[in-house]
Amino acid sequence: MTFAGWCNHTQADDWPEFLGKNRNGISAETSLVDSFPATGPVIRWRAAGGVGMSAVVVQGDYAVTTWNDEGKQWLVALDTADGKVKWKTQIGPAYKNPMGDGPRATPTIAAERVYAYSGEGILIAVDLASGRLLWSKDVMQELSAKPSEYGMSCSPLVIDDRLIVHTGADDAAVVAFAASDGKLLWKSGSGHAGYSSPVLMDLAGTKQVVSFSGTAVLGIDPDSGKVLWSYPFETDYGCNTASPVSIDGGIFISSGENHGSVLLDVKLQNGTYAVSERWKSLDSKSVMRNEWQTSIVLGDHLYGFDNVGAAGPVSHFSCIEAKTGKPVWQKLRFGKGNLVYADGKFWLTTIEGELVIARADASGFQELSRATLVGKNRQTLSIANGCGYLRDDSEVVCIELASPKIDLAFDAETIDTWNGFKRHRFSFDGQDAWVVEPKNPRADGRFTWCMMFPDAFTERCAAPMLVSRGYYHVFLSVGNSFGAPKAIDKLGAFHKMLVERGFHPQAVLIGISRGGLYAHRYAATYPDRVSVIYDDAAVLDYQSWPGGKGKGKGSPGDWQELRRWYGFDNDEQAADYPHTPLKTLGLLAKNKIAILSVVGDSDDVVPVEENTAVAENLYKEFGGVFEVIRKPGVGHHPHGLDDPTPVVEFIERYTVQK
Question: What is the pTM of this model?
């Protein structure tokens, strides 16, 4: 049984091209986290990558980027669920450049196809579902052009069946190809390609492709390629890199190298387009010098990175009045980075690999949280469907951003504290139940679930440390029922209720002593609902305890109670029962449930050799993850560890991988 309807109440949105759906760095996603736990963001996965400067684009369950690896440039699709490679298609030979190796341009996903542009100017189209190459062409060779000095960096723009890129040929600064087959449709402008990417804008009552080349900004008719207007803006080394930004019917362009910025107005007068400067701010005193980062306009204000000097080391994060260019404030020496905006917050990536969450408006800048995710990079964070994607020259990382909207208003509840955390106590189906609330919840709503003895050795058994790291912690009392089917049914209904309230569909089960019977029976009944089991001196064979059929002490009274709960008329029926923990380990391994067991090697109540040791050998034969921490000279008590960090690290490692 699965919880197919589970969601985290986030307004989801894809990120299918450079700077998002509208190429403006703004995502429609809502209900995202405001800060990270002390341990950092929740990592959904990390995937090995390669060298390159492309950002990640996302559509559905495809996360796509490009990189150098094994002497080639690759277009690669990763599964958004686990980071595994779905397909990998060669673009061309590995791209090398003194300013950094690897492809620069970000791919574009449109109409179930992916388009990619290599560092030396090879343009390809592939099928999104399979990665099958549909067509490929060497644009530089076809147009007798030379690649830009620092590599072709234009992320393709798709408008209907037109695929538009910068080329930098003498007679074609910008060109359009047929998206279906790569046939050349039109050529436009001339001169240096620059490093920017074109944007479709509404200007003077018409839709126009606005292209920021190495020497000018052009307004182009998307159907014919006719240049409707142009404005010269020549920057040293052709380093016009940031995309044009639409502001109040005008066009904002900005460059580093101490060039500066200008807001242009375009008017149609007597059938001719006229360009004028609404404001400009140039040279070393400019209010905004975007080195490679595209600024973002929100309301009446523009926010962006102002780089000091000719590609100098100092950058401020700045706010200006968008319509006038008047400075409002600066976050001095913030450092080089990049920016996107979602859910009322800026998501700033630093060149050192950090992700910073911040709020900013005309009144100022407030940093909310900061965490290191990757190594040095220049990419933006790509935000899609409740997750964030960022990469460097060796890996791609996916983090959970959706803020869990968990309903913690239980009928007739009482509130107290548990190990310093707020606890909600209530009744579920006539049984005592409770939920411990973390002060800074994880973005994915994950929780730990103690099946028995929830107040025994708590500081030693990891749960409080996990709550401090953002996990919820829950308990439902089903009595001394030994994991019998009736008890499992109640636990299953309780779990269903939690998921309906916004909790993650998969639990981390804690089986202390006889709680191991509950944890393993529950996992075998609902394997899709469990990611990790933490056993502690756990009973895994009831013949050992309470049956006392081996070396252990057993417990005759508990054995009779167990037989009553299960409906066994005699010991032979108990021995033949097919759903004990040791007999269902294959099902757990098949479902990739990771198991950690903490045991005392002198336990004479639940002997290790009759329980954990047998389970460990069987589980490893089934190919499952089963790790054991042995405590020399320790008996059944005390449970847990003096320092439960190894337990916490195991749980965090395998909840990410499940």
Answer: 0.77
